[in-house]
Design brief:
The protein has 372 residues and is an alpha+beta fold. It folds into two domains: 203 residues, FAD/NAD(P)-binding domain (3-Layer(bba) Sandwich); 144 residues, D-Amino Acid Oxidase, subunit A, domain 2 (D-Amino Acid Oxidase, Chain A, domain 2). The chain is 31% helix and 27% strand. It has ten helices and 20 strands. The strands form four sheets. The chain has an eight-stranded mixed sheet with strand order 6-7-5-15-16-17-14-18, with helices on both faces. The chain has a six-stranded mixed sheet with strand order 9-2-1-13-20-19, with helices on one face. Strands 3-8-4 form a three-stranded antiparallel sheet. Helix 1 packs parallel to helix 10, helix 4 crosses helix 7 and helix 4 packs across helix 10. The protein is globular, with a radius of gyration of 21 Å. The protein starts with a strand and ends in a 19-residue tail after the last helix.
């Protein structure tokens, strides 16, 4: 008999899990309280940059991100084929810009350990940097270049994931409002507050991002997942003056094929409020002109915000509950939901099939670790 899986959450993580599970023969239903991709997923800048964004050491989270980056070339092609939709996947590489001589030693140290994990990075001086990015600020003295990093256009990617799931026969239910988990110890039963309809399955995958933290009383365990508001802005740049993803200590800019230059991100704690604030966007404007002076005289044409599901220790909740053979978690990916979508989907599907998870230290991502 085909195993039935309920996926709670229609963001990039939930849709990716549904896509992979359906590919492996499971019967899948996605339950979304609002609209698929309506929160952090659709608001993301879409960077696939584990080297640029994990700068301290090769901890388990970095290794999880790196494995997902390596899955992306094949993964994105599979999503495009299944959906019949194209979306931007650009292997531009990235640059992490330096402004001070004191930064050089830190970059050399980072390069040393990251190259052991396949970064193939290159330390550039000022002249070499300007050959790659002519419009970068004159104060920049060099950069660390990562040729293997890439990015996707997040709204297009999430739309394609949703379409792929629908074409493959995943049952997607949106607009469910509040969701009540009626049963989860032996099988799963979920009821929609707005439609009063009940959905049943053998397994429940909790992939509802920042909302996972509201489910502590249901599962009787500590779930420290908190919404962090990330504000982003975009500029109209039809001639695309920036060729790479460009990072500095304050944030990043990344150019998209549609002629927009995305700048992010300004973060604050505002509960579940996704209001864009002048203060939040001003933080971005205050530094991006110092990275690319041409931005100093421009105003963003688009400003938006999404909720990033942050955990107490920065690691996602990933894996099965020991207290139930019917519940798995795939939540708390913070700023890396787009990047981590392929590896998360593979882990969840592997666990449901009883397969090895490729040596990943899943005990460190144990969803019950805060209750032990």
């Amino acid at each position: 008999m085909t195993q039935r899986v309920l996926v709670l959450g229609g963001g990039v993580i939930g849709l990716s899990c549904a896509f992979e599970l359906k590919n492996r023969g499971f019967a899948v239903t996605v339950l979304e309280q609002g609209k698929c991709g309506g929160q952090a997923s659709g608001a993301a800048a879409g960077m696939l940059a584990p080297y640029s964004e994990n700068v301290e050491e090769p901890d388990p989270f970095f290794r999880l991100c790196l494995q997902s980056l390596r899955l992306y070339p094949e993964w994105q092609l599979a999503v495009k084929e299944a959906s019949g939709l194209d979306f931007e996947y650009s292997a531009t590489g990235s640059l992490y810009v330096m402004y001070h001589e004191a930064d050089v030693l830190a970059m050399k140290s980072r390069k040393l350990w990251q190259d052991e994990y396949g970064a193939a990075s290159e330390l550039l001086d000022a002249a070499e940097l300007r050959k790659l990015e002519p419009l970068v600020a004159s104060e920049a003295i060099g950069a660390l270049r990562y040729p293997g990093e890439s990015h996707v256009y997040a709204p297009g990617y999430v739309k394609a994931l949703e379409e792929a799931c629908r074409r493959m026969g995943v049952d997607i239910r949106e607009g469910l409002g509040g969701i009540d988990i009626v049963r989860w110890h032996d099988g799963a039963e979920v009821r929609s507050a707005s439609t009063a309809q009940t959905y049943r399955g053998d397994t429940l995958v909790v992939a509802n991002g920042a909302w996972a933290g509201l489910m502590e009383s249901i599962f009787g365990m500590t779930i420290p997942v908190y919404p962090i508001r990330g504000q982003i802005c975009a500029y109209e740049t039809p001639d695309m003056p920036v060729r790479h993803m460009v990072f500095c200590s304050q944030g990043y800019v990344v150019g998209k094929r549609n002629g927009t230059l995305v700048c992010g991100a300004s973060e604050d704690i505002a509960g579940f409020d996704t209001t864009v604030t002048r203060r939040g966007i001003a933080r971005l404007e205050n530094w991006n002109g110092k990275l690319f002076p041409f931005l100093g005289g421009m105003r963003p044409f688009h400003e938006w915000a999404g909720l990033r599901p942050a955990t107490q220790d920065g690691f996602p909740l990933l894996g099965a509950l020991a207290r139930s053979n019917s519940v798995m978690f795939a939540a708390g990916h913070y700023r890396n939901g787009i990047l981590l979508s392929p590896v998360t989907a593979h882990v969840i599907a592997d666990l449901l099939e009883g397969r090895s998870t490729s040596g990943l230290p899943l005990d460190l991502f144990n969803p019950e670790r805060f209750s032990q």
